[in-house]
Amino acid sequence: MSFLSQLLYPVYEARLARAIKGKPQPRHVAIMADGNRRWAREAGFTDISHGHRQGAKKISEMISWCKDTDIEVVTIYLLSTENLKRSTQEVQLLFDIISDVVKHLSEGDLDCQIRLVGHLDLLPAEVTEKMRAAAQATEDNKGVIVNIAVGYGGRQEIVDAVQNLIRDEAQKGHSTEEIADSVTADAITSHLYTKGLPDPDLVIRTSGEQRLSGFLLWQAAYSEIWFTDTYWPAFRRVDFLRALRDYSQRSRRFGK
């Protein structure tokens, strides 16, 4: 960043912050934190773990940006079921980094409430236990709710929701016909990993990719989507504010 850019950046950032004051803002922002490996390669690092670690540092920073907004819930996509197919070494690295992220957020001063969303049975037991213990320590916090999507797949979430709904109805002794009638949109929603929370108003994806990649397929049916070419480790508050400004200027439509 040039010297002139360094001088102008705070001015532009403040201008963006003023621009969204009093304007419609999302309650729930979902973020696809993508581009860690590409950022590391383009920055000249041969070890891609540097990109993952820089991306991890960005998470708490981003949550702090929500302080002066109307955002109540943040969902961060950190590890998909497809990511579990990467090399054993990289997957273990991701487990370690994500576990550290959850622990850091639970011990920090953000006062956020952490929830884990995903098919946690796919993860090693010690990893799941470590993250659950850290998340449980935040249950009484009053700040932003932070959903950590790990071992997550949108299709798998819907399958899990329907299966759990059917099991619940079967335990009540209902007939096949009654169980079939119980499978409604509202009933499925109440069995999702994010049950009890509003659907995301805004989905942000970094790194230039323009697809959902299975992220919150059910919940994001009517979400506004904002793409940026910026890689996640390089994502700045000014980028975040641009996304919020763009959201405030859109006319949301449901069902069209």
Automatic annotation (TrEMBL):
<dbReference type="GO" id="GO:0000287">
    <property type="term" value="F:magnesium ion binding"/>
</dbReference>
<feature type="binding site">
    <location>
        <position position="34"/>
    </location>
    <ligand>
        <name>Mg(2+)</name>
    </ligand>
</feature>
<feature type="binding site">
    <location>
        <position position="86"/>
    </location>
    <ligand>
        <name>substrate</name>
    </ligand>
</feature>
<dbReference type="GO" id="GO:0005886">
    <property type="term" value="C:plasma membrane"/>
</dbReference>
<dbReference type="GO" id="GO:0033850">
    <property type="term" value="F:Z-farnesyl diphosphate synthase activity"/>
</dbReference>
<feature type="binding site">
    <location>
        <position position="205"/>
    </location>
    <ligand>
        <name>substrate</name>
    </ligand>
</feature>
<comment type="subunit">
    <text>Homodimer.</text>
</comment>
<feature type="binding site">
    <location>
        <begin position="35"/>
        <end position="38"/>
    </location>
    <ligand>
        <name>substrate</name>
    </ligand>
</feature>
<dbReference type="Pfam" id="PF01255">
    <property type="entry name" value="Prenyltransf"/>
</dbReference>
<keyword id="KW-0479">Metal-binding</keyword>
<protein>
    <recommendedName>
        <fullName>Isoprenyl transferase</fullName>
        <ecNumber>2.5.1.-</ecNumber>
    </recommendedName>
</protein>
<dbReference type="InterPro" id="IPR036424">
    <property type="entry name" value="UPP_synth-like_sf"/>
</dbReference>
<comment type="similarity">
    <text>Belongs to the UPP synthase family. Z-FPP synthase subfamily.</text>
</comment>
<keyword id="KW-0460">Magnesium</keyword>
<dbReference type="GO" id="GO:0016094">
    <property type="term" value="P:polyprenol biosynthetic process"/>
</dbReference>
<feature type="active site" description="Proton acceptor">
    <location>
        <position position="83"/>
    </location>
</feature>
<feature type="binding site">
    <location>
        <position position="52"/>
    </location>
    <ligand>
        <name>substrate</name>
    </ligand>
</feature>
<feature type="binding site">
    <location>
        <begin position="211"/>
        <end position="213"/>
    </location>
    <ligand>
        <name>substrate</name>
    </ligand>
</feature>
<feature type="binding site">
    <location>
        <position position="39"/>
    </location>
    <ligand>
        <name>substrate</name>
    </ligand>
</feature>
<comment type="function">
    <text>Catalyzes the condensation of isopentenyl diphosphate (IPP) with allylic pyrophosphates generating different type of terpenoids.</text>
</comment>
<feature type="active site">
    <location>
        <position position="34"/>
    </location>
</feature>
<dbReference type="InterPro" id="IPR001441">
    <property type="entry name" value="UPP_synth-like"/>
</dbReference>
<feature type="binding site">
    <location>
        <begin position="80"/>
        <end position="82"/>
    </location>
    <ligand>
        <name>substrate</name>
    </ligand>
</feature>
<dbReference type="GO" id="GO:0045547">
    <property type="term" value="F:ditrans,polycis-polyprenyl diphosphate synthase [(2E,6E)-farnesyl diphosphate specific] activity"/>
</dbReference>
<dbReference type="InterPro" id="IPR018520">
    <property type="entry name" value="UPP_synth-like_CS"/>
</dbReference>
<keyword id="KW-0808">Transferase</keyword>
<feature type="binding site">
    <location>
        <position position="224"/>
    </location>
    <ligand>
        <name>Mg(2+)</name>
    </ligand>
</feature>
